[in-house]
Amino acid sequence: MDVRSLFAAQTYSATKPAVQAIPQAGGPGKSTFAEIARELEATIRGGEQTAQAAMAGRADPHALVEALAQSELAVETVVAVRNKVVEAYQEILRMPV
Prior knowledge:
Elements: H1 3-15, H2 30-55, H3 61-94
Helix pairs in contact: 2-3
């Protein structure tokens, strides 16, 4: 057996456990989307609360800018994912039957 192929086989067997799927309790995909939705809601809610506190004079401007940037990034991410889903759906509709 060639030394290079032996090294490749050892490297492959060492990295194989790193790419195995992690079992989920709620079924595939269910808990992941629920967690993402909760995190999105918490991020936006935190931004709103920080904005209200800043308007009342209870929060510093740096915290306001940081919270608004996080909210903006979260919304942009959701919009990008939604656009990809719509694009995939349109591709499916264009497929010949």
